Amino acid sequence: MLGYSRIGLPLSACVSFIYSAEINGDELREIAIDAKAKGIVCGYLDYLQTREVPAHVGDHIARVLKLDHPPYGMAPNPWIPFSDDLITLSNRVNGIALIIDNSEVFLDENPRDFFGLIEAFLLQFENWFEKRKPCHLCFQMEKNEIVRQTFAE
Predict the structure, then answer these.
(1) Is residue 3 scored above 50 in pLDDT?
(2) Three-class SS of residue 14?
(3) Secondary structure (3-state) at 44
(4) How many other C-beta atoms can be found within 10 angstroms of the C-beta atom of residue 48?
(5) Which residues sit opposite 101 in a β-bridge?
(6) Residue 151 near residue 111, CB atoms below 8 Å
(7) Counting C-beta atoms within 10 Å of the first and last residue's C-beta, which end of the chain has fewer, N or C?
């Protein structure tokens, strides 16, 4: 359960790959309640749902994190304005935890954006870290109903 157990902490270990065997539903719900009580925005995205509305994955993430300037998909490098919006968000909230469910499908179908997201996330991470605010990117590698129930709005 190491992956989600840290989302309330401002750690440099900010990217996690989590498998269903690591999840305990009761512990996960307590972690989520604690994070939300601290004002940490927990954004949940099921990668499979991105297929239903054609858009850049950054645009889908922007919707769940309520970022300022999507759509990014038309930009020459969509991850740059996406990163800028995450930096701006670091001035307004106490932290973020972005949970992407079905990440094994994301990696398989769209490795360019999978790794682009990681790079963009790491590029802007220092802004959160310097402010001592949690900033986590959690790849839920296998679909997990408990994760969806816990974090989906």
Answers:
(1) yes
(2) coil
(3) strand
(4) 13
(5) 46
(6) no
(7) C
Q: Which fold has domain 2-7+18-151?
A: Rossmann fold (3.40.50)
CA distance 82 to 91: 15
139: phi then psi, degrees, rounded to nearest 5: -90, 105
Domain ranges of the chain: 2-7+18-151
Radius of gyration, alpha carbons of the chain: 14
d(C-alpha 148, C-alpha 153), whole Å: 9
pLDDT, tens digit, for every residue of 11-54? 888 999 999 888 888 999 999 999 999 999 999 999 999 988 88
E strand spans, the chain: 15-18, 40-46, 95-101, 135-140
